[in-house]
Every structure is written in structure tokens, then in C-alpha cells.
Amino acid sequence: MKKENQRKESLGEVIDQILNLLGKHKLVDGLVDKQDIPKQKLIKNLVNKQNLNTLMRLLNDLHPADIADILESLPIDERLIVWDLVKSESDGEILVEVSDAVRETLIADMDNTELLAAAEQLDTDEIADIAAHLPKNVLQDLLESLDVQNRERLQSTLSYKENTVGALMDYDVVPIREDISLEVVLRYLRKLGKLPDHTDKLFVVDREGSILGVLPLKKIIVNELDLKVRDIMSSDAVLFKPNDEADQASDAFERYDLVTAPVVNDENKLIGRLSVNAVVDYIREEAESDKLSMVGLREEEDLFSSIWKSVQNRWAWLAINIVTALLASRVIGAFEGSIEKVVALAALMPIVAGIGGNSGNQTTTMIVRGLALGQVSFSNLQRLMQKELGVALLNGVLWGGVLGIFAYLLYGNIKLGFVMTAAMILNLLLSAIMGVMIPLVMNRFGKDPAVGSSVLITAMTDSGGFFIFLGLATIVLI
Questions:
Q1: CATH assignment, 175-275
Q2: Could you tell me if 214 and 204 are in contact, meaning their C-beta atoms sit under 8 angstroms apart?
Q3: Superfamily assignment of 2-163 in CATH?
Q4: pLDDT, tens only, 241-255
């Protein structure tokens, strides 16, 4: 964590340097254009060339992932200037690293020849990551430029649904036979010269390519070289199939501390591998997507996208918010007479609704997490509901009692204190029910339970809280 914080601080300093150089670049353009001096164009080019060369040297020392972060941190005009200065051999790696929204702006600035050259630098699984953003003619040219094996692999990867193992796997496998000695294995590895990234095991297959087990590299090191692979291999390896859900695969990687795992087809033949870096990237992207979904954003948004595009991304749940706010206002409107007679109700009712909303969001977050981990279903709904209602009741009695005493001390009306306590208990019970049911129902109908759940629970607890509090006040006080 300390190293990551240091990296972010260092990257922040680099971004400041880049913005400073870009600022000088624009300043020179403006100043020289205003001056009526001889060789104006030559002076402008010389000064700008110096600033851009400094900027280029700065970029050349950076990792593609760091350049991707920098591009995401720059307004579009400055982003494209920096993008033009990046080494062309890094274009493909940077396109893989940047967010989808920023990738669109970079690709739009490239011609077909540049795009094809950038894509040809990448592995098959990396090409699949950016394929959806490539123009159709570029993708077709790219397919034609690949050899038969890689073309088939790319087409296979693109055929798998998003969020499946097939969409995440790569083809950098090192298969070995069970009947060879460890000495032969070592000679084979030396002949390869380089192992795929994150290789912690070799995959043992038979003559037909069917998986038999795995051979961890550490076993090769600590065992005698004349032993056969079959003598020390692990035959109970964790296997995945291309159509397995990526969520389940990520859970397995966490549970079994996996670094890589073989991917097999229905005939149990080895077709690829799933590696921890692909799983970590998937988890990070899902976490970011869930954060956006919780507040009703439909997709990742470029910080510097146009106003209109941002409005398109954000309007849907704001519209739902308006509808729910209007509903809450009508609930309040139905009790205008009660509020006029007991003005204190207007000051106290937001407290009931607000605490109910917070409690409901806590419950919803727990349920969404449980659904993601496979711990929650309709089969254990009854016990889950009982537990959440118990928590809500205890909190309602405790904090409702505190607020009831507060209302009595503030307004000198013991009946108002009773209403406050009762309303708090009932609204927390409502928030518990809604907090459990909303994500479960959404999940049952195939919807992402994280999408906008906080908006819905807040709407229910606001309207319900106002109705409960004002309804009780009308019955008891009026």
C-alpha cells in the first residue's frame, strides 16, 4: 500500500510537469501569434519543439500503465497532444490499459494504419479487450494479418460472452507429457527461453491433449531430476471451462490461492489458461462498475467528456429520483393539515426518513455482497429476514427512544416523543424489509442487484417514513 501511494504521488508530480509543459506550449503559441516579428513561424517552431521534446523524454521513461493513467487525467485537447508524442510501439499496450471511455477518444484520433500497427503488437487476448472499439474494417484487416492459429484463437475469444472465463483466458500455456523426466522438462524450458507471465505451474496432458494434472515449478526444483512427471504431478487441479462465470472463477482463485489454472473444453482438452492478472483486472473492473451502478450511472464516464455525453449517462436515475421525490412530496401534501397544527412535525420528519434510508442502504449493501459471494438466495430468505428485522427492531428501540426523549425535551410534548419513537421503529423495520427484498427481486429477474439499489431504497424509506411519521402524528396528536 505504501509503494502504491508513493507511485500515485510520483505520478501526480509527473502530471503536474506535463500540464506545465503543455501550458508553456499554449502560451508560446498565443504570444508569438500576437507579435509582428521577423521569422515568427521559425521562432514559434523552435520553442515549441523544445517543450515537446522535453515532454517526449518524460513520457519515454514511463510504463504504459502510467501513461494510461496520465491520459485519463488530462482534458481531451491536452490528451491528444500527449498521445501523439507517445512511442508508437507503446500504442497497443496503452490502449489496453486505458478505460473504455478514454480509449474511444484515442482511437478516434488514429487512422486505420496506426490502429492496425498498434493492434498487431498485442497478444490475442489483449486484442480481444479492445476489439469492440476498433472500426470493423480495421478488425477485418487485423484478422487477415494473423496466422491461422491466432486468427482462430481471436475469433474464439470474441465468441464468448462477457464476464465468462473464455473472455478472460489467454493461450500462453506450457503443456508437458506425464511420461517424461524432470530433466527433460528442464531442458524443454531452457529451450523455450522465456515462460509466460505469472507461470507457477506446467499443464500435464496426454497424447490427445486432454488434461491429466499440473506440475508446480517448485516441485521441479526440489525433486530428483530422474523422477517422472507422473510421480510428482498434482492430479486434482482446479479446472475451468470457457463458459464458466468469471465471478465463480474469481472466487476460486481467492479460495485456493491460485496464480494460474487450466481451461479445458467439454472433451477435457487443454485450450488455454486463466491467470491471476486477468482475474484481478476483472475484479477491479467489476468493483468500479458496482460503484457506478450503486448511484445509477450506466457506464464508466470520461472525466473530460462533453457535457452532453455526461448528461446522457446520468439522466436516467435522476429522472427516477424526480419521480420518487414527487411521490414523497405528495405523501407530505396529504398531511398538510397536521403539519399546520403541529409545526414541529416539519422539523422532525426528515430525521425519520434519513435514518431509515441509511439503515436500508446498510442492509442492501450486505445483501448485494452476499449475492455476489453466492451466500444469499430465496432458500435462506426467511432466516435472513428474521435476522435483519431483529437488527432493525433493536436499533429502532434504542435510537427511536433517544430521539423520542429529544423530541419531548425540545417541544415539551410527551405524545410527540412517543410518535417519534414508534415512527423510527416502524421505518427501520420497513427499511430492513426493502433492503432485503429489492436486491433479491432484481437478482431473481436477471438484473444487477447493485444497479440503482440505493436510489430505490432511499425512495421507499423516504415516502414510507413520511407516511408512517405523519400518519401516527395525525392519529395521536390531532
A1: 3.10.580.10
A2: yes
A3: MgtE N-terminal domain-like (1.25.60.10)
A4: 999 999 899 999 999
